[in-house]
Amino acid sequence: MKQIVLVYGFIALIILALLSLFSYSAGAGYIYIYWHTIQIQTNIWIMVFFFLILSFIAHATWYLIKRYVNRERRKIENALSFSRLHPYEQLGVVWLLEGERDKQDFIETIFNQSALLKQIVQARLLFRQQDYAAALKILEQSSTAAFELAEIQRIEIHLAQNQAQHALTHLEFLNGHQLSPWLNQVSDAYAHKLQALWGEFAIQYPFQYLHSTQFGKLLSLEAKQQWLTELLSQIENASLEENELIQQRYLNIMPSLEMLPYAIKVLWLKLLTRYPEMAQQHQNLALHLLNEKFDQDVFYLLFQQHLLRQNPDYEYIEQQIDALEKKYLGMPVFAFAKWHIYTATGKIEQAEQLLSLYPDDILMNYLRIKSTLKGDETLILQLNSIFENDANFVKFKI
Fold first, then answer.
1. For residues 57 and 9, is the Cβ–Cβ distance under 8 A?
2. Which UniProt keywords apply (predicted)?
3. Backbone phi, psi, residue 54, to 5°
4. Which contiguous run of DSSP H or E holds residue 314?
């Protein structure tokens, strides 16, 4: 339909130019039509454009009727052969069945007619076949107009080849590149794809992601959680520089920490547990989380961090526990913590009184058994090995 409008517009311009030329110094002419009782008096300009408009209406009506009839016919027509389907329908079938490999020749034939997408599609097919070198070579010949699409292909290839630095370089460059105007209508899809690539990079290379200038800006919440989980699982292999970067990155996000989901903040807390020099930040984050809602693992991490200090301030720890106990009533873990404080400060009678509380709680059962061992380190170590392997005793494993 758009082509019909453009053709008739072009014809109208030509007629306008010709009529202007022939009418020069001769006027618009005069036409008189008499038929039965109908009389029409007009000029050549109006008559010509009247028939042009009439022709356009007839042509457009014929086109719309033909299009409607074809659409209705295809609804009831049985598909007897794949080759008889419309090329776009063929592509749809291949896409739905994920049959790019089976129909590679067909797809290449369709897109060979496209100067914009020919090399991009060929590279995609080669990428699916894991022929990364050939895919990169073909992308060098791709149209400059499809620069963003080629870059996305390169990033995926570098990720598949485990070339972290190359992938990061292209991600950084693409993120700072202004989107081509012809892609503006799919800018949301483009941004989503770029975000997914950043997430894939961060999860695959958790330490390299720390070096990104776009740290924390482009990851989805799900990707952030997966990245932190990967970081924790590999933290023992972190270099001195990477440990410093983790601490610095946390300090950078502190102002916006409250906007993060609870689960992500808990993962940051577990990371901070690894750094004694971040003890104050660890304590502040743990208290923030406990004020938001009670989580036994978070409390245990806070309590453990206090006890690991060279000279624990037992009075201050007890004050914190009392404040939390007023807010969250009936939590056995508070009695568990106080028992350790009373034992360390020589308040044996008060510690013994706590052992009568919460008879069905696993933490208190542990203390009751431990108290009967009378400081026998060998038996206590055996007891710890049993309880620490129980998921209900200490839920966090990292």
1. no
2. Membrane, Transmembrane, Transmembrane helix
3. -60, -40
4. helix 314-327
